[in-house]
Amino acid sequence: MAACGSAGVPATVSGKQEFYQLLKNLINPSCMVRRQAEEIYENIPGLCKTTFLLDAVRNRRAGYEDPHPRVRAAACTTLGQMATDFAPNFQKKFHETVIAALLRTMENQGNQRVQSHAASALIIFIEDCPKSLLVLYLDSMVRNLHSILVIKLQELIRNGTKLALEQLVTAIASVADTIEEKFVPYYDIFMPSLKQIVELAVQKELKLLKGKTIECISHVGLAVGKEKFMQDASNVMQLLLKTQSDLNNMEDDDPQTSYIISAWARMCKILGNDFQQYLPLVIEPLIKTASAKPDVALLDTQDVENMSDDDGWQFVNLGDQQSFGIKTSGLEAKATACQMLVYYAKELREGFVEYTEQVVKLMVPLLKFYFHDNVRVAAAESMPFLLECARIHGPEYLAQMWHFICDPLIKAIGTEPDTDVLSEIMNSFAKSIEVMGDGCLNDEQLEELGEILKAKLEGHFKNQELRQVKRQEENYDQQVEMSLQDEDECDVYILTKVSDILHSLFSTYKEKILPWFEQLLPLIVNLICSNRPWPDRQWGLCIFDDIIEHCSPTSFKYVEYFRWPMLLNMRDNNPEVRQAAAYGLGVMAQFGGDDYRSLCSEAVPLLVKVIKCANSKTKKNVIATENCISAVGKILRFKPNCVNVDEVLPHWLSWLPLHEDKEEAIQTLNFLCDLIESNHPVVLGPNNSNLPKIISVIAEGKMNETINYEDPCAKRLANVVRQVQTSEELWLECISQLDDEQQEALQELLNFA
Could you tell me the pTM of the whole model? Predict the structure, then answer.
């Protein structure tokens, strides 16, 4: 038997019963017992935790079915944590045992709190459980949930009990959210009960239940789709409107608020343009919540100590016996409201136009709302969508709104302290540039932006140097290395956003932006040096790719900087770097002009070598390889004088189809159409011997969803198939080599294109 610490906490865990005792202690009312249990739990090896907990799942006399409710509740909580920590492998390995055990525990009516913990664990487990696994248990799981719902609804009516019901409706929402359209057969058995809960939950103590049930209804509606949901849409909308009306007379931190706000957004997604009639009723309280100012206070330390955690305040010590406090309870609702405004602007466009000015005046100042990161994220994310709405009002109105947005957005890029928020602000700025187009930045704005981007790039290099210094220090160990790698990932992510902004400028301004870009040129050249880490080389090459694609033929003046890095990086061990180099070689052929002919000739053998490599089609390498295949196709198509076309074409055809990179795949199919429509003898083959291969490529393109019916290429490909069908013998030979799924794909293409 292991030694015990104070209050009966085992100092170590060597057996199942001690593990179950530890689970009890993790939820012990005593802070000291809980703290000691947490320390021991953290030191148990991961494999032992898994083994003990799965024993608890399997053993009818332990864990989930242990007679003591605290053990069962703690086992459920721990399982939920493991489902989060080890997702999705935990779900893939233990789905059968875990789902059955949790449902069995939820069915046991002996203890509401245990039921609630089991439902909570099921919610967490489902979040990362693949749809293909969940559907294996769908019928029994959904019917179990419904039978429990009926019992809990009766308990609510008789006794007002709601604890397990709150988690149960969230579990139903999670199931619907995961299985989507497969929830349709079960819709009619759940919706009446869910609507009844909303109608019954009128007391103050049932606010949270009402909010979660409204959330569940909106998830179910989204899962089954508009056609099925329309039978209840009017009734549900009236319930929402009544709840919305009640909320207008309630406290700002009412727990229903965020659920209602999110539910309205899902209703918008379900109903589409039909939702527009409800927007005037929704928008006013939404803007009110998004505009709410947080309660702040400057208090003495003694006053802070006298406040309860339940009061919803957070404090920062300012020294001198004073603390700055902010009431956090309303901040989540504010952030949710801001996110929903973004959603409506994005989804409704024309329907949102009349609110654009009011919302932009709200959002721009929130770029500096440092009390909550998600508020600033939503403010930044809204900008390009608001500009799209403003465009409907006409160019003058759009220009006025951009004038209001642009300077604060640029300044936010320079001052934002949080990396995640900064990346969203930079992404929003790049999208806004694309909306506004050529000439949208004046000289002062370009100058400020250039200084900010230069500082970001210089900081990137400086941070890498500092990390190398830290690796030489005495206290360097694995934990320090993990921290340094996290810092590096953050830096690289910001580098990707620098690339996004430059892409937006190159694609809108074309070669006119190059004189401004030259202040950054030495830093971009430094990124692609052979001694730089591979992500630097990847993104440096991507920036030069954009220059070649959008600023040619002028781009050739920089060829001395990227010629050898682009060719040499075709041999790089990292597929991301090879992909960037291959894409650059392809756009050289497509957009680069005659100056790039010799470089294209040099590129072909390197591209072919990568394509023919034994492991070129593995999951890790396939995207880079497909970019190589596409690049060869672009050289054949746009620079045919650089290569022996008749010699390379049969190889290129044999490498098709492309499956993973949809954009490059459609480029190759367009080129294939060009060749077929011109009756190219090498592509068609002697006596049309290559047509079965070509038909197979077209079928695969449809199956892989490369072919979009709105794309002109779809009609061209369908015409190729129809042309082959004119020869019955040839057509029978082609389809004899296709399986049923490929034949169905071809028929679908012919039906719609």
Answer: 0.80
Please tell me the predicted confidence (pLDDT) of residue 16.
55
Q: Are residues 280 and 144 in the same domain?
A: yes
Residue 634 sits in the same domain as residue 669: no
- The Cα–Cα gap between 291 and 125 comes to 36
How do residues 3-61 score in pLDDT, each as one tens digit? 344 334 344 444 556 666 666 666 566 667 767 776 776 666 555 555 555 454 444 44
Q: Measured at the alpha carbon of residue 281, what is the angle toward residues 278 and 287, in degrees to the nearest 5?
A: 120
User: Domain check: are 142 and 267 in the same one?
Assistant: yes
Place of tokens 């004038």: 403
Q: Using CA of residue 263, residue 268, residue 271, residue 276, what is the dihedral sign? A: positive
Q: Is 188 contained in some domain? A: yes
Q: Are 642 and 635 within 8 A, CB to CB?
A: yes
Q: Which DSSP string corresponds to 140-169?
A: HHHHHHHHHHHHHHHHHHHH---HHHHHHH
Whole-angstrom distance, CA of residue 521 vs CA of residue 547: 11
Residues 672-714 pLDDT 10s: 999 999 999 999 999 999 999 999 999 999 988 888 888 899 9
Question: In this predicted model, which residue has the larger pLDDT, 66 or 395?
Answer: 395
Q: Where is the domain boundary, 621, 637, 655?
A: 655
Last residue of a domain, one of 107, 129, 151: 129
Dist. CA 136–CA 122, nearest whole Å:
15
Q: Is the pLDDT of residue 64 over 80?
A: no
Cα angle value 699/702/705 (rounded, 5°): 150
Q: Supply 657's token pair.
A: 């189809």
Q: Are residues 107 and 178 in the same domain?
A: no
The range of the structural domain enclosing residue 61 comes to 13-129
Quick one: 153 and 266 in the same domain? yes
Output the domain CATH number for residue 599: 1.25.10.10
Residue 412: band (very low, low, confident or very high) from pLDDT cuts 50, 70, 90: very high
pLDDT for 272-284, tens place per residue? 888 888 888 888 8
Domain count, the chain: 4
Helices 356-363, 331-348: inter-axial angle, 10-degree rounding: 140
